[in-house]
Design goal:
Layout lengths: L19 E5 L3 H7 L4 H22 L3 E8 L7 H14 L4 H6 L3 E5 L7 H14 L6 E8 L1 H15 L8 H7 L10 E4 L18 E4 L9 H13 L10
Parallel strand pairs: 1-2, 1-5, 2-4, 3-4, 5-6
The structure holds 3-methylbut-3-enyl trihydrogen diphosphate (2 copies) and magnesium ion.
One 3-methylbut-3-enyl trihydrogen diphosphate binds next to strand 2.
Length: about 240
């Protein structure tokens, strides 16, 4: 797949880097509609943008980056659009294995995978298995993800193994969420004009910095990620404390 839309930089000059960046990849449909193309064409271009931004994140050395690919609410879309997105996942995810290998990228997924098609689940399992030893950037695909759904599933997992009347704590939710080993998201960026989280990483976004952009996701590339990182570096994070 062509990722050469914009050249990748090879230097990492950031003093303050988020450990975990979350991207709400929005605007694919509008990108396509503006060009009189079917919405699916926007999803295809969105996939190419995801690859460009992944490469840049890996060059910069961001430890974790989560891409919101499909929400628990996106099933409301037409059968054809949902099928296209699921097919992209099933055919393209594992298909990029050479790319992950070349760049030492580990791939994980986050969300309720039980509702996915068998080919999509198989592609996810194969990709996770094939990249599990890679130590560079960890790319997390949030698919059939909903922040609320993840909290409910975490509580239910805990209830299934709970042996006493111990109460649910903050630590309980974190321990039983989908990827407890992944740190909370530091920075969430949302292209595509809308200023909302749309059920993305609700628990872990408690103290995330939020940045919104008008540029539609398919037009994103390395420079947009770098703009977001520049903005993040200017933010004063206090976590309820006082300015230092
Ligand atoms: C985001 O782009 C991709 C998914 C939600 C799967 P959209 O498909 O929501 O694009 P717009 O918001 O309709 O332009
Ligand atoms: C959020 O985009 C979900 C993903 C990017 C996967 P949506 O397009 O579904 O969000 P809303 O409906 O505008 O809030
Ligand atoms: Mg949208």
């Amino acid at each position: 797949m062509d990722t050469s839309k914009e050249p990748s930089s090879t230097s990492n000059d950031y003093d303050v880097l988020p450990r975990h960046v979350g991207i709400i990849m929005d605007g694919n449909g509008r990108w396509a509609t503006k060009r009189s193309l079917p919405r699916t064409a926007g999803h295809w271009e969105g996939l190419k943008a995801a690859k460009r931004v992944t490469l840049e994140a890996s060059v910069i050395g961001i430890p974790y980056i989560t891409f919101y690919a499909f929400s628990t609410e996106n099933w409301k879309r037409s059968t054809q659009e949902v099928a296209y997105i699921m097919d992209l996942l099933a055919t393209r995810l594992f298909g990029e294995l050479d790319f992950y290998t070349k760049h030492n990228i580990r791939v994980l997924t986050r969300g309720d995978l039980s509702k996915l098609s068998e080919p999509a689940r198989a592609a996810i399992e194969a990709t996770e298995r094939a990249t599990r030893e890679f130590t560079g950037t960890c790319v997390i695909i949030a698919v059939n993800h909903g922040g609320q759904d993840e909290i409910v599933r975490a509580v239910n997992r805990w209830l299934a193994v709970r042996t006493s009347q111990e109460p649910c704590t903050l630590e309980t939710i974190r321990t039983y969420c989908d990827l407890p080993q992944v740190p909370p998201v530091d920075l969430i960026v949302r292209p595509g004009c809308e200023k909302r989280l749309s059920n993305f990483l609700l628990w872990d976004s408690a103290y995330a910095e939020l940045i919104f952009y008008d540029t539609l996701w398919p037009d994103w590339g390395p420079k947009h990620l770098r703009l977001a990182l520049d903005e993040y570096a200017k933010r004063a994070r206090r976590f309820g404390g006082v300015p230092t």
